[in-house]
Amino acid sequence: MVKPSFAPRKGGDVKPQREKVRTFCRMCFGRCGLLVTVEGERVIKVEGDPESPLSKGELCPKGAALPQILYHPDRLRYPQRREGERGKGEWVSISWDEALTTIAQRLNSFKRDFGPESVVIGLGDPKGLELAFAQRFASAFGTPNVATPGHICHMPRDLASAFTFGSPCLGDNQNLPSCIVVWGSNMLQTHDASITRSVLRSALNNGAKLIVIDPQKTALASRAELWIKPRPGSDGSLALGVMKVMIEENLCDENFVANWTTGFDRLREHIKNYPLDVVEEITWVPREQIAEAARLYAQIKPATIQWGNALDHTSNSFQTCRAISILRAISGNVDIPGGDIMPSPIPITRPGHFMLLREFPRKLEKMIGGEFKLAARSAFIPRQSVIKAILEAEPYPVKAALLIGTNPLLTYPNAKETYDALMKLEFLVVSELFMTPTAELADIVLPAATNFEFDEVGPYPSLYLLAYPKIVEPPGECWSDMRMINELAKRVGLEEYFWADERDALDLILQPTGLSFEEFKKEGILQAERKYRKYEESGFRTPSGKVEIYSQQLEELGYSPLPIYNEPPETPYSSPELAREYPLVLTNAKEPCFCHSAHRNIPRLRRIAPEPRAQLNPETAARLGLKDGDWVYIETKRGRIRQRLSLNGELDPRVVVVAFGWWFPEKGASQLYGWAEANVNILTESAPPYEPALGSVNLRGILCKVSKA
């Protein structure tokens, strides 16, 4: 057995019969360390890497299923051109030369006739550098329209930290906290957190107090000192309630607040607008629990808040995250060992430089969704804005889309509207591992390599830089998305901004480290400098040099400088008449064996979760004449879906939890893989009001009803 190494095998070397290669997984954002056993140029086994600082040997079902993903018989292996009508499953294999030539000709013709902004690039959650490459291509091509899930995934949290602290604010992976708040994150299963599971377990075993805020009693909630189950979508009100108790009971860190924050006196007055009896009514959380949470969090140090994706899914997303950021500040848990830290930047090429934003400044006046100023400043546009622009040809016609690693029919809000928009496009290109419902609507489908089939680098939330060596060759003619974009750029006439070989870009990214990719991959990991209380030397990276509780920057942009909560439009309180017809409150959950809509075709994973499961309290089910295992309809005013019922006695009787991301590859192309049968986004809304700075939509907390199917 060869000692595990980050360095991949080289083509001219004498290869051992079997060897282990050390890498990191990218099938979600956990970046778990892997030991991949390769024999005869095939991956035959995957194990957790016990030496990984990120996962300490843990391995989830997705990682264990890697061989089935890599060698699935339905992997796309060659570019495909549609022959018949969209969605009919009639395809012919073509060469990459024909595919790229066709795409380049069509994109350039749309650019000439309708302007570069008539072309949109859409991406899913980036697992690597495909977003950076796509943004570079967009800049050079001239389109300001790059649609990402940022407005409903991480950007509300990231930007709330930026406007409050001037930098990211993350959990400390090197020192144990004494109090942990897990808010809207099922981090033991879906790992949407910045501290690792091993740190979490060590802290709990060391006696740390745990507060879990989640409508569902997750495995972690079962271990909590305090489990709070708010009404889905009301987290912003809850955060303001916790803040009110801390301020009115003098639980804040007086020294830190006095010396290192601005606007606390204004916050003290502002919080009077949120009486606890109103917060209790809105959130369904007893005021005694709100006060208990405030006291636990404020009085135990060091404490960390691990927040999750659920907070991004409402029209209050950014302000909710601002409120939670301020809780971190007034508790004094900022940049201390075991608290919420602000890591030093990893020394890599700055994103704006790589994306050519200086050479080609984004034309914000041309950007779809440019009214969402924080989204526009971050060089992305909300997805629903793109869909409405396609359908309405406003502010101008959108003619073509290049979709990379994304499945909009399953992951965009208001799926029926998304379907209509994709069908209206004159030209649609999709890069994917497998045929998906979205790919079936394309004109050209490109076969993508998995992240284990090419070299790459990538950050782990501002704490580490990781090397991802190529483990095996991709099947057929699968290309990485980096290579695809690099070669397409040459075909459209942008070769001066790209590379002879896309791997050369890795050296550009690593340039500030002084390492080439060949040198870096031998190390495998680079850690950001760790130093605490940096603000005592240089202040915070905000205009005032302090934590900005009251944000003048936000005020100048036209947004509330202090956190606020506005009741969304489709709730029991804002729409009582609608609630009589749709009396239940909807939220959704993701299974740990899948990532968003991916992997429903992988046998090992479907054995774990063979069908979509909706959860309901037994009391509610009995009232509706339903029993465990029934097929049920879940319905909103936009449509209905069908899932299998599971009873959950820990759920609030007013809540239904629906499984996210479900389609059925086994149903085949003729049925478009059953894309609408169990798809929660058939139920969701894409209409305003949106989060005003980012464009977040209400994906949770909307009204629904359940009946027997």
Describe this entry's structure for a reader:
- With 709 residues, this protein is an alpha/beta fold.
- It folds into 4 domains: 2-70, Single Sheet (N-terminal domain of TfIIb); 80-149 and 351-447 and 472-505, Rossmann fold, CATH 3.40.50.740; 166-343 and 533-557, Dimethylsulfoxide Reductase, domain 2; 576-708, Barwin-like endoglucanases, CATH 2.40.40.
- Helices cover 29% and strands 18% of the residues.
- The strands form 7 sheets. The protein has a 7-stranded mixed β-sheet, covered by helices on one side.
- Strand 2 and strand 3 form a beta hairpin.
- Helix 3 crosses helix 18 (481-491), helix 5 crosses helix 12 (317-330) and helix 15 packs across helix 17.
- The model has no long low-confidence stretch (mean pLDDT 94).
CATH hierarchy: architecture of the largest domain: 3-Layer(aba) Sandwich
**Using DSSP, what is the number of strands?**
28
Assess the beta-strand content as a share of residues. 15-25%
How does the helix and strand content classify structurally?
alpha/beta
Under CATH, the topology of the largest domain is which? Dimethylsulfoxide Reductase, domain 2
Shape: globular
Using the CA coordinates, give the radius of gyration.
Answer: 25 Å
Number of helices: 25
What is the terminal-to-terminal distance? Answer: 55 Å
Cross-sheet strand order for the largest sheet: 6-5-18-17-16-7-8
Please, what is the CATH homologous superfamily of the largest domain? Dimethylsulfoxide Reductase, domain 2
- Share of residues in helices: 25-40%
Low-confidence stretches: none
Provide the CATH top-level class of the largest domain: Alpha Beta
**Mean pLDDT over the full residue set:** 94
Instruction: Characterize the main sheet.
Output: 7 strands, mixed
